[in-house]
Specification:
Layout lengths: L1 E3 L6 H4 L9 H16 L7 E12 L8 E6 L3 E3 L2 E10 L4 E13 H6 L3
Antiparallel strand pairs: 1-3, 2-6, 3-5, 4-5, 5-6
């Protein structure tokens, strides 16, 4: 999955800092999206997955206009728990982030019924 960094993706724009480089929260959103899409492959009808844990190292800044490639590996499955290894690289092929995201498979109706 490839994304171009826009002014709306910067730390200044999202409020996570005061510099005009890719914001960690935006990067995390892209990583979460990639894992949510991969999780669809293991879901049964009526199920969804929800994010439960994140451990990401944002290693290098990325300028507006640069591209970011997001890769999530197929999950390690342990019952309802899905563990994804993720990484992001810039247009020069440099590793800008890596880590793990965890998702849990839930029954969609039951999950939504428990939302206060």
């Amino acid at each position: 999955m490839r994304h171009e960094v826009t002014p709306a993706d910067t730390a200044l724009a999202v409020g996570s800092g005061d510099v005009e480089v890719l914001a960690t929260p935006r990067l995390l959103t892209w990583l979460e999206y990639a894992t949510a899409q991969l999780a669809l492959r293991v879901l049964d009808p009526g199920q969804t997955s929800v994010g439960t844990a994140v451990r990401i190292r944002h290693r290098l800044p990325t300028r507006v206009g640069d591209t970011v490639d997001i890769v999530a590996d197929d999950p390690a499955v342990d019952g309802r728990q899905l563990l994804f290894r993720v990484r992001a690289t810039n247009s020069a092929g440099q590793l800008i982030a890596d880590g793990e995201l965890e998702r849990v498979v839930v029954d969609r109706s039951r999950f939504l019924a428990n939302v206060p």
